[in-house]
Description:
Layout (H helix, E strand, L loop, with lengths): L2 E10 L16 E2 L2 E11 L1 E2 L9 E6 L6 E21 L10 E3 L5 E20 L1 E6 L6 E11 L4 E10 L11 E7 L1 E5 L2 E5 L3 E2 L2 H11 L4 E2 L12 E6 L14 E3 L12 E9 L11 H9 L3 E11 L2 E4 L2 E2 L19 E5 L4 E10 L5 E4 L3 E3 L1 H7 L2 E2 L13 E6 L15 E2 L11 E9 L11 H9 L3 E5 L8 E3 L2 E2 L4
Parallel strand pairs: 13-18, 15-16, 17-19, 26-27, 28-30
Antiparallel strand pairs: 1-11, 2-3, 3-10, 4-5, 5-9, 6-8, 6-9, 6-10, 7-8, 12-24, 13-14, 14-21, 15-20, 17-18, 19-20, 21-22, 23-24, 24-25, 25-33, 26-32, 28-29, 30-31, 30-32
Amino acid sequence: MNKLFAILIIGIFAASIISISTFSDQFADAGSRKKIHFTQTITSSQDPGQGHENHQLALILSPNEGTIYDGSMTFTSSEPVQIVVLHEINSQEAKGQPTWTVDGNTIYGLSLIDLQEKSGSFEFTGAALALHSPNSKEFTSTVSVDGWIRGQPTEVIMQKIELEKEEPSLLLSRTNVPATIPMHKGIYDGEQILYIITDGSDEEYAKTLTEKQDWKVELAHPLTDVPEEALQKIFIFKNGVKGDGIYGFQDEVLSSTPQQESEYSALSSVIEVTWKVGQKEIIFESADDVIVAEEGGRIEFNETGIVLNTPQIVWPNGQLQVRSDSTITDDMPYGGGQITEINEEELTVTFVAHRGWGPDGRTIYYIVTDATPSGPAEMMGVVSSPTSANLIAHSSAVDLFQFKNGIKGSGPLGFQAGIAGAGLGDENYSPMWRIYLVEWNDSESAKILETKSDIDSFRADDMITVSIARPTNSDHIVNCPFIDPFQ
């Protein structure tokens, strides 16, 4: 919880010099005046003033009884801010004017200059100086002050207002861990692709692929119903030229890559290809070549109706972003890339697996491979896949709840870890996630939520607001396969 310290230091001086510890190294003696001259970067914290609990305050010059500051200030800030100047008064002098107080006893007149700008200059005279925001979003400002502190009272009371921000936080153990996943070779227009297989819509097919790649392919029944406009094609060869393909023949052929952003999908409709007897077997290098051969009667298609999640790692002229720092820690930034290594010799890729909660509170780990719209995708360092927006109102996407305030933690927005609407083994599990945002109506009342029923209960009690995420006013779907990073 936030702890407010109002420290009253009382001393008796006779013809002495006032000293304020916070800025003592920035003052120069000038009789009864002290010079103030400094540049300082300040991060705001909760405004300690009564009635301002949901506001943010960056205190520049602390209030000191019997002392007046005057001078000029220039500032720049990460958010539009207001300028606050406090004036020393007693409670009897308030008489309806705007005031500011921490404890209801010591009261200041309040001048609030509502610039609503991110930068500016201002001349001030008063007992304290601060920047202020009327909302709860933290901001950072750099200020330069040039002025004087005036006054040499016999009795000096210095009020140093400190907001010691011991915000509640929850950092799960093994919050982020490495997950090394086997890659497969594929072909697009004669060039190599490297991709992974994480999920499949058919149980037997998922088991077969698990055995072949020695890494578990999870069953995701809802992928069966993915609309055609959200799919690409993957041609898997059952015979023909020997090679490194899934069945021991030529590499799989895919119909798009992230280079064709408007067409690319990590979700692939499986078409099994078999050469007819007596045909001269060749290596196909494009989807168009495969389709022409089928139309010419040289091969047969088995359109299985099976959908695989096949995120591409390397493609012609591109690859997934590799993090600049490959060290995986519990408190590492969420953005900046989701993989730490692509090993093309060993055909493996190492992802950062993020920890969260399943709907019943069980631990889950997930990786992130692609997303829509492009803004969140770029922030996370993954592929943009606009075709995924076709799933926003579809049963093949499942709800994933992320927190935008409350308890600090390892979630993508800096708060507690998210909660999924389905987990591995659930009938409705899918790697395609429709993101909802959970916001505490009173962040001071925030608690750790661990299950979907927690969310439903607190929502029913009007303690949280749940809304669908629409960054840049766009449909938001993220491909987050749940995995076992310890297999």
